[in-house]
Amino acid sequence: MNVPLAELLGTARVVALPMTTRFRGVDVREALLFEGPEGWAEFSPFVEYADAEASVWLAAAIDYAWNAQPTPLRDRIPVNATVPAVDAARVAEVLARFPGCRTAKVKVAEPGQHLSDDIARVHAARDAVGPEGRVRIDANGAWNVDEAERALHALAEYDLEYAEQPCATVDELAELRARVKYMGIPIAADESVRKAEDPIAVARAGAADLIVIKAQPLGGIRRALRIVAESGLPAVVSSALDTAVGLSQGAALAASLPQLDFDCGLGTGALFVENVADLSPVDGAIPVGRVTPDAARLDHLAAPDDRRDWWLERLSRCHALL
Protein backbone atom coordinates (compact mmCIF):
# COMPACT_ATOMS: atom_id res chain seq x y z
CA MET A 1 0.00 0.00 0.00
CA ASN A 2 1.41 3.35 -1.04
CA VAL A 3 0.94 5.74 1.90
CA PRO A 4 2.61 9.14 1.44
CA LEU A 5 5.57 9.72 3.75
CA ALA A 6 4.00 12.95 4.99
CA GLU A 7 1.08 10.98 6.44
CA LEU A 8 3.45 8.79 8.43
CA LEU A 9 5.50 11.74 9.66
CA GLY A 10 2.36 13.65 10.62
CA THR A 11 1.61 11.40 13.60
CA ALA A 12 5.05 9.84 14.19
CA ARG A 13 6.21 9.57 17.80
CA VAL A 14 9.57 8.11 18.82
CA VAL A 15 9.76 6.55 22.26
CA ALA A 16 12.55 5.07 24.39
CA LEU A 17 11.42 2.43 26.87
CA PRO A 18 13.76 1.52 29.75
CA MET A 19 14.09 -2.20 30.42
CA THR A 20 14.08 -3.96 33.77
CA THR A 21 16.98 -6.19 32.66
CA ARG A 22 19.40 -6.00 29.75
CA PHE A 23 17.95 -8.18 27.00
CA ARG A 24 19.41 -9.01 23.62
CA GLY A 25 22.07 -6.41 24.34
CA VAL A 26 19.41 -3.73 24.80
CA ASP A 27 18.93 -1.58 27.91
CA VAL A 28 16.53 0.95 26.34
CA ARG A 29 14.19 -0.11 23.54
CA GLU A 30 13.48 2.55 20.94
CA ALA A 31 10.47 2.49 18.61
CA LEU A 32 8.64 4.76 16.19
CA LEU A 33 4.85 4.78 16.40
CA PHE A 34 2.36 6.30 13.99
CA GLU A 35 -1.41 6.33 13.53
CA GLY A 36 -3.45 5.39 10.47
CA PRO A 37 -7.16 5.00 9.69
CA GLU A 38 -7.31 1.63 11.49
CA GLY A 39 -5.28 2.67 14.52
CA TRP A 40 -1.73 2.85 15.81
CA ALA A 41 1.18 0.79 14.50
CA GLU A 42 4.85 0.32 15.35
CA PHE A 43 8.04 0.50 13.30
CA SER A 44 10.92 -0.79 15.43
CA PRO A 45 13.54 -2.81 13.57
CA PHE A 46 16.62 -3.18 15.76
CA VAL A 47 19.07 -0.36 15.23
CA GLU A 48 21.75 -2.56 13.64
CA TYR A 49 19.43 -3.73 10.84
CA ALA A 50 20.09 -2.34 7.38
CA ASP A 51 17.40 -0.34 5.59
CA ALA A 52 16.46 -3.14 3.19
CA GLU A 53 15.54 -5.44 6.06
CA ALA A 54 14.00 -2.63 8.10
CA SER A 55 11.71 -1.67 5.21
CA VAL A 56 9.88 -4.99 5.61
CA TRP A 57 9.04 -3.96 9.17
CA LEU A 58 7.72 -0.65 7.82
CA ALA A 59 5.48 -2.44 5.33
CA ALA A 60 4.02 -4.44 8.22
CA ALA A 61 3.36 -1.29 10.25
CA ILE A 62 1.66 0.50 7.36
CA ASP A 63 -0.51 -2.53 6.65
CA TYR A 64 -1.57 -2.71 10.30
CA ALA A 65 -2.39 1.01 10.54
CA TRP A 66 -4.16 1.38 7.18
CA ASN A 67 -5.89 -1.95 6.55
CA ALA A 68 -8.44 -4.07 8.37
CA GLN A 69 -6.86 -7.29 9.61
CA PRO A 70 -8.10 -10.90 9.42
CA THR A 71 -11.00 -11.81 11.68
CA PRO A 72 -9.67 -13.10 15.01
CA LEU A 73 -10.48 -16.66 16.02
CA ARG A 74 -9.82 -16.11 19.74
CA ASP A 75 -9.90 -13.17 22.14
CA ARG A 76 -7.06 -14.08 24.53
CA ILE A 77 -3.56 -15.34 23.77
CA PRO A 78 -1.69 -17.51 26.29
CA VAL A 79 1.87 -16.25 26.60
CA ASN A 80 5.19 -17.47 27.95
CA ALA A 81 7.47 -15.78 30.43
CA THR A 82 10.80 -14.65 29.00
CA VAL A 83 13.96 -15.09 31.05
CA PRO A 84 16.94 -13.03 29.85
CA ALA A 85 20.48 -14.29 30.36
CA VAL A 86 20.44 -13.37 34.04
CA ASP A 87 22.19 -15.10 36.91
CA ALA A 88 20.29 -18.18 38.07
CA ALA A 89 19.57 -16.52 41.40
CA ARG A 90 17.44 -13.90 39.60
CA VAL A 91 15.25 -16.28 37.60
CA ALA A 92 12.44 -16.47 40.16
CA GLU A 93 12.40 -12.66 40.36
CA VAL A 94 12.03 -12.41 36.58
CA LEU A 95 9.29 -15.03 36.41
CA ALA A 96 7.31 -13.18 39.07
CA ARG A 97 6.70 -10.42 36.48
CA PHE A 98 4.69 -12.90 34.38
CA PRO A 99 1.74 -13.83 36.59
CA GLY A 100 -0.05 -17.00 35.60
CA CYS A 101 2.37 -17.96 32.82
CA ARG A 102 2.92 -21.71 32.67
CA THR A 103 5.80 -21.60 30.18
CA ALA A 104 9.28 -20.11 30.60
CA LYS A 105 11.46 -19.27 27.61
CA VAL A 106 15.06 -19.10 28.76
CA LYS A 107 17.79 -17.29 26.84
CA VAL A 108 21.00 -19.31 26.51
CA ALA A 109 24.35 -19.03 24.68
CA GLU A 110 24.85 -15.43 25.77
CA PRO A 111 28.22 -14.02 24.63
CA GLY A 112 30.69 -14.07 27.49
CA GLN A 113 28.81 -16.78 29.38
CA HIS A 114 29.33 -20.55 29.56
CA LEU A 115 27.21 -23.68 29.30
CA SER A 116 27.34 -23.95 33.08
CA ASP A 117 25.51 -20.60 33.27
CA ASP A 118 22.83 -21.90 30.90
CA ILE A 119 22.40 -25.09 32.91
CA ALA A 120 22.01 -23.17 36.16
CA ARG A 121 19.49 -20.75 34.59
CA VAL A 122 17.39 -23.52 33.02
CA HIS A 123 17.53 -25.51 36.27
CA ALA A 124 16.22 -22.49 38.16
CA ALA A 125 13.42 -22.00 35.61
CA ARG A 126 12.38 -25.64 35.88
CA ASP A 127 12.32 -25.40 39.66
CA ALA A 128 10.21 -22.25 39.46
CA VAL A 129 7.56 -23.52 37.04
CA GLY A 130 7.44 -27.01 38.54
CA PRO A 131 7.04 -30.37 36.83
CA GLU A 132 3.80 -29.37 35.12
CA GLY A 133 5.24 -26.16 33.67
CA ARG A 134 7.05 -25.89 30.36
CA VAL A 135 10.61 -24.74 29.70
CA ARG A 136 11.93 -23.82 26.26
CA ILE A 137 15.34 -22.38 25.38
CA ASP A 138 16.47 -19.86 22.77
CA ALA A 139 20.10 -19.69 21.59
CA ASN A 140 19.56 -17.13 18.79
CA GLY A 141 21.74 -19.26 16.48
CA ALA A 142 24.85 -18.88 18.64
CA TRP A 143 25.97 -22.53 18.77
CA ASN A 144 27.62 -24.65 16.11
CA VAL A 145 26.24 -28.18 15.68
CA ASP A 146 28.63 -29.83 18.13
CA GLU A 147 28.07 -27.14 20.76
CA ALA A 148 24.31 -27.41 20.35
CA GLU A 149 24.35 -31.19 20.63
CA ARG A 150 26.44 -31.01 23.79
CA ALA A 151 24.18 -28.34 25.28
CA LEU A 152 20.99 -30.26 24.54
CA HIS A 153 22.46 -33.37 26.16
CA ALA A 154 23.25 -31.30 29.25
CA LEU A 155 19.82 -29.66 29.34
CA ALA A 156 17.69 -32.66 28.40
CA GLU A 157 17.02 -33.60 32.03
CA TYR A 158 14.99 -30.40 32.41
CA ASP A 159 12.34 -31.69 29.98
CA LEU A 160 12.65 -29.01 27.29
CA GLU A 161 9.53 -28.15 25.31
CA TYR A 162 11.77 -27.22 22.38
CA ALA A 163 15.07 -25.56 21.46
CA GLU A 164 14.72 -22.36 19.44
CA GLN A 165 17.30 -21.55 16.75
CA PRO A 166 20.15 -23.48 18.39
CA CYS A 167 22.29 -23.00 15.25
CA ALA A 168 22.44 -20.25 12.65
CA THR A 169 21.94 -21.97 9.30
CA VAL A 170 19.32 -24.27 7.83
CA ASP A 171 21.94 -26.93 7.08
CA GLU A 172 23.16 -26.85 10.69
CA LEU A 173 19.61 -27.10 12.01
CA ALA A 174 18.94 -30.09 9.77
CA GLU A 175 22.09 -31.87 10.94
CA LEU A 176 21.39 -31.14 14.60
CA ARG A 177 17.77 -32.27 14.29
CA ALA A 178 18.95 -35.58 12.87
CA ARG A 179 21.51 -36.01 15.65
CA VAL A 180 19.17 -35.30 18.56
CA LYS A 181 15.91 -36.71 17.21
CA TYR A 182 16.17 -39.71 19.54
CA MET A 183 16.20 -37.30 22.50
CA GLY A 184 12.71 -36.03 21.68
CA ILE A 185 13.63 -32.33 21.84
CA PRO A 186 11.88 -30.47 18.99
CA ILE A 187 13.83 -27.86 17.04
CA ALA A 188 12.21 -24.47 16.38
CA ALA A 189 13.34 -22.04 13.69
CA ASP A 190 13.17 -18.28 14.24
CA GLU A 191 15.95 -16.36 12.46
CA SER A 192 15.92 -19.02 9.73
CA VAL A 193 12.38 -17.87 8.94
CA ARG A 194 12.25 -14.13 9.64
CA LYS A 195 15.73 -13.25 8.32
CA ALA A 196 15.71 -15.62 5.35
CA GLU A 197 15.20 -14.75 1.70
CA ASP A 198 13.18 -17.98 1.50
CA PRO A 199 11.32 -18.42 4.81
CA ILE A 200 10.01 -21.82 3.72
CA ALA A 201 13.48 -23.28 3.10
CA VAL A 202 13.81 -24.48 6.69
CA ALA A 203 10.60 -26.49 6.39
CA ARG A 204 11.52 -27.81 2.96
CA ALA A 205 14.85 -29.05 4.34
CA GLY A 206 13.22 -30.87 7.24
CA ALA A 207 15.33 -28.71 9.56
CA ALA A 208 12.67 -27.78 12.12
CA ASP A 209 9.68 -29.22 13.95
CA LEU A 210 8.00 -25.84 14.34
CA ILE A 211 8.54 -22.23 13.32
CA VAL A 212 8.55 -18.97 15.27
CA ILE A 213 6.81 -16.10 13.50
CA LYS A 214 6.80 -12.37 14.20
CA ALA A 215 4.45 -9.89 12.56
CA GLN A 216 6.82 -6.97 11.97
CA PRO A 217 9.87 -8.82 10.55
CA LEU A 218 7.70 -10.92 8.23
CA GLY A 219 5.96 -7.96 6.61
CA GLY A 220 2.61 -8.16 8.37
CA ILE A 221 -0.08 -10.55 9.52
CA ARG A 222 -1.25 -11.80 6.13
CA ARG A 223 2.25 -12.64 4.91
CA ALA A 224 3.04 -14.41 8.18
CA LEU A 225 -0.12 -16.48 7.86
CA ARG A 226 0.84 -17.46 4.30
CA ILE A 227 4.30 -18.56 5.50
CA VAL A 228 2.74 -20.77 8.18
CA ALA A 229 0.35 -22.31 5.69
CA GLU A 230 3.09 -22.99 3.15
CA SER A 231 5.46 -24.43 5.75
CA GLY A 232 2.95 -26.97 7.01
CA LEU A 233 4.54 -26.68 10.48
CA PRO A 234 3.07 -25.62 13.83
CA ALA A 235 3.81 -22.01 14.68
CA VAL A 236 4.60 -19.98 17.77
CA VAL A 237 3.96 -16.23 17.56
CA SER A 238 6.59 -14.13 19.28
CA SER A 239 7.50 -10.47 19.71
CA ALA A 240 10.54 -8.55 18.56
CA LEU A 241 10.75 -6.76 21.90
CA ASP A 242 7.85 -4.60 20.78
CA THR A 243 6.06 -1.87 22.68
CA ALA A 244 2.44 -2.53 23.62
CA VAL A 245 1.42 -1.34 20.14
CA GLY A 246 3.57 -3.92 18.39
CA LEU A 247 2.48 -6.61 20.84
CA SER A 248 -1.14 -5.95 19.88
CA GLN A 249 -0.21 -6.69 16.26
CA GLY A 250 1.44 -9.92 17.40
CA ALA A 251 -1.69 -10.83 19.35
CA ALA A 252 -3.78 -10.19 16.23
CA LEU A 253 -1.51 -12.58 14.32
CA ALA A 254 -1.81 -15.26 17.00
CA ALA A 255 -5.58 -14.75 17.08
CA SER A 256 -5.76 -15.38 13.32
CA LEU A 257 -3.87 -18.69 13.24
CA PRO A 258 -6.16 -21.64 12.49
CA GLN A 259 -4.33 -23.64 15.19
CA LEU A 260 -2.43 -22.33 18.20
CA ASP A 261 -0.70 -25.17 20.04
CA PHE A 262 1.95 -23.23 21.97
CA ASP A 263 2.06 -20.35 24.43
CA CYS A 264 3.23 -17.28 22.54
CA GLY A 265 6.18 -14.99 23.20
CA LEU A 266 3.96 -11.92 23.50
CA GLY A 267 4.34 -11.24 27.20
CA THR A 268 7.53 -9.24 26.80
CA GLY A 269 5.84 -6.04 27.89
CA ALA A 270 6.72 -7.30 31.38
CA LEU A 271 10.40 -6.66 30.56
CA PHE A 272 9.89 -2.89 30.39
CA VAL A 273 9.96 -0.51 33.34
CA GLU A 274 7.32 1.55 31.56
CA ASN A 275 5.35 1.13 28.33
CA VAL A 276 3.15 3.28 26.10
CA ALA A 277 0.09 1.30 27.23
CA ASP A 278 -0.68 -1.62 29.53
CA LEU A 279 -0.32 -4.99 27.83
CA SER A 280 1.53 -7.22 30.28
CA PRO A 281 0.32 -10.75 31.04
CA VAL A 282 -2.65 -11.26 33.35
CA ASP A 283 -3.46 -14.82 34.36
CA GLY A 284 -0.92 -16.02 31.79
CA ALA A 285 -2.49 -14.30 28.78
CA ILE A 286 -2.92 -10.99 26.97
CA PRO A 287 -6.11 -9.76 25.29
CA VAL A 288 -6.62 -9.41 21.56
CA GLY A 289 -7.42 -5.91 20.32
CA ARG A 290 -5.80 -2.75 19.04
CA VAL A 291 -3.89 -0.62 21.52
CA THR A 292 -3.96 3.17 21.67
CA PRO A 293 -0.91 4.69 23.35
CA ASP A 294 -1.51 6.85 26.39
CA ALA A 295 -0.82 10.46 25.42
CA ALA A 296 0.91 11.30 28.69
CA ARG A 297 3.16 8.25 28.40
CA LEU A 298 4.11 9.18 24.85
CA ASP A 299 5.32 12.51 26.20
CA HIS A 300 7.05 11.00 29.21
CA LEU A 301 8.78 8.26 27.19
CA ALA A 302 9.74 10.47 24.23
CA ALA A 303 13.21 9.75 22.90
CA PRO A 304 15.88 12.48 23.00
CA ASP A 305 15.87 14.85 20.02
CA ASP A 306 18.90 13.28 18.35
CA ARG A 307 17.37 9.81 18.55
CA ARG A 308 14.01 11.10 17.30
CA ASP A 309 15.76 12.62 14.29
CA TRP A 310 17.65 9.36 13.68
CA TRP A 311 14.39 7.39 13.56
CA LEU A 312 12.59 9.91 11.36
CA GLU A 313 15.47 9.80 8.88
CA ARG A 314 15.39 6.01 8.97
CA LEU A 315 11.65 6.06 8.35
CA SER A 316 12.17 8.26 5.29
CA ARG A 317 14.90 6.01 3.87
CA CYS A 318 12.89 2.83 4.39
CA HIS A 319 9.75 4.41 2.94
CA ALA A 320 11.70 5.17 -0.24
CA LEU A 321 12.45 1.44 -0.59
CA LEU A 322 8.81 0.34 -0.49
Secondary structure elements and their pairing?
Layout: H1 5-11, E1 13-23, E2 26-36, E3 39-43, H2 51-66, E4 76-78, E5 81-83, H3 91-95, E6 103-107, H4 115-129, E7 134-138, H5 145-155, E8 160-164, H6 170-180, E9 187-189, H7 191-194, H8 201-204, E10 210-213, H9 221-231, E11 235-237, H10 244-256, E12 285-287, H11 295-300, H12 305-321
Parallel strand pairs: 5-6, 6-7, 7-8, 8-9, 9-10, 10-11
Antiparallel strand pairs: 1-2, 2-3, 4-12
Helix pairs in contact: 2-12, 5-6, 9-10
Keywords:
322 residues, alpha/beta, Enolase-like, domain 1, TIM Barrel, 2 domains, 3-stranded antiparallel sheet, 37% helix, 19% strand
Report the structural category.
alpha/beta
Given as residue ranges, the uncertain stretches (5+ residues, pLDDT < 50) are none
The CATH topology of the largest domain comes to TIM Barrel
Shape estimate: globular
Cα radius of gyration in angstroms: 19 Å
Number of strands: 12
Domain tally: 2
Strand/helix succession: HEEEHEEHEHEHEHEHHEHEHEHH
Identify the quaternary structure here.
single chain
Number of helices: 12
**How much of the polypeptide forms β-strand, as a percent range?**
15-25%
Give the name of the CATH architecture of the largest domain: Alpha-Beta Barrel
Distance between the termini: 9 Å
CATH C-level label of the largest domain: Alpha Beta
Biggest beta sheet attributes: 7 strands, parallel
Helix content: 25-40%
Biggest β-sheet: strands ordered side by side in the sheet: 5-6-7-8-9-10-11
Mean pLDDT: 97
CATH superfamily of the largest domain: Enolase-like C-terminal domain
